[in-house]
């Protein structure tokens, strides 16, 4: 698959908008080879600049979308025309709509007990023809991992949505995608919580103004320490150029 990428702090990001990202995602599904899609934000890009293993996982992924205004800003700062963010939750909705239209099977893995099931119910309401072939929460022990992988493999999904939090979900997919045998594996962070109604997404006007990060910080003050990675990311990008 031909790729047009920009490298930010050593991480390759595909120059895609939502439409092109979905097109490339379907190409991966149709290819049928286990693949990994990452929606990359500034926080994880900064972490990857300090962690060779994480950076390798990102650069070996089959599709990396610009999730977060920080990534969009950094790409534009380097002279690349990235038109919009392509976030994890938007990819979930777009992939589920595609799956409902084309008959692709979807498996939801992650979040707290009961949340994946609730998210599956909500997605079925939105897309009545969606085939969800399985759900499993993310609170499994290391010794249960093989059983979890086996259950996913036996369900034979075309799309696996993994909500284990970044970068844990990225490492999980990278290490096990061949065993899982799923054509498209995507880490989706806290998307199940939002879809299930456990947490609220930012109002539409804040999303349009690229202030979703601020809403999340105000809603969850405990994120403040994590958000301190953002100014460090900006400074590192400026020094990189």
Automatic annotation (TrEMBL):
Q: Does the keyword Methyltransferase apply?
A: no
GO MF annotation terms: N-acetylglucosaminyldiphosphoundecaprenol N-acetyl-beta-D-mannosaminyltransferase activity
Q: CDD domains per the record? A: Glyco_transf_WecG_TagA
Task: List keywords of the entry alphabetically.
Answer: Cell wall biogenesis/degradation, Glycosyltransferase, Teichoic acid biosynthesis, Transferase
A Pfam family assignment = Glyco_tran_WecG
Task: Indicate whether Cell division appears among the record's keywords.
Answer: no
What are the TM regions of this chain, as residue ranges?
none
Q: In which pathway does this enzyme or protein participate?
A: Cell wall biogenesis; teichoic acid biosynthesis
Q: Which reaction does it catalyse?
A: UDP-N-acetyl-alpha-D-mannosamine + N-acetyl-alpha-D-glucosaminyl-di-trans,octa-cis-undecaprenyl diphosphate = N-acetyl-beta-D-mannosaminyl-(1->4)-N-acetyl-alpha-D-glucosaminyl di-trans,octa-cis-undecaprenyl diphosphate + UDP + H(+)
GO term, biological process aspect, one? teichoic acid biosynthetic process
Cite the InterPro entries for this sequence: TagA_TarA, WecG_TagA_CpsF
The catalytic activity of this protein is classed by the Enzyme Commission as 2.4.1.187
The similarity comment for this entry is: Belongs to the glycosyltransferase 26 family. TagA/TarA subfamily.
What is the protein named?
A: N-acetylglucosaminyldiphosphoundecaprenol N-acetyl-beta-D-mannosaminyltransferase
Q: Which organism is it from?
A: Thermosyntropha lipolytica DSM 11003
Taxonomic lineage of this organism?
Bacteria, Bacillati, Bacillota, Clostridia, Eubacteriales
């Amino acid at each position: 698959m031909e790729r047009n990428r920009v490298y930010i702090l050593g991480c390759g990001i595909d120059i895609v908008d939502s439409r092109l990202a979905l097109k490339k995602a379907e190409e991966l599904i149709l290819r049928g080879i286990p693949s990994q899609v990452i929606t990359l934000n500034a926080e994880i890009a900064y972490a990857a600049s300090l962690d060779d293993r994480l950076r390798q996982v990102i650069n070996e992924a089959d599709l990396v979308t610009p999730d977060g205004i920080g990534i969009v800003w950094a790409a534009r700062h380097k002279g690349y025309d990235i038109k919009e963010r392509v976030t994890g939750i938007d990819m979930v909705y777009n992939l589920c709509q595609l799956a409902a239209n084309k008959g692709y099977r979807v498996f939801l893995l992650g979040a707290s007990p009961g949340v994946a099931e609730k998210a599956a119910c909500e997605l079925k309401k939105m897309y009545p023809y969606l085939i969800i072939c399985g759900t499993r929460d993310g609170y499994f022990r290391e010794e249960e991992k093989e059983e979890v992988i086996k259950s996913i493999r036996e369900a034979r999904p075309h799309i696996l949505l993994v909500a284990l939090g970044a970068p844990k979900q990225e490492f999980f997919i990278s290490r096990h995608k061949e065993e899982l045998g799923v054509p498209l594996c995507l880490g989706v962070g806290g998307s199940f919580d939002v879809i299930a109604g456990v947490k609220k997404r930012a109002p539409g006007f804040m999303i349009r103004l690229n202030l979703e990060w601020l809403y999340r910080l105000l809603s969850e003050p405990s994120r403040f320490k994590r958000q301190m990675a953002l100014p460090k990311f900006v400074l590192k990008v400026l020094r990189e150029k």
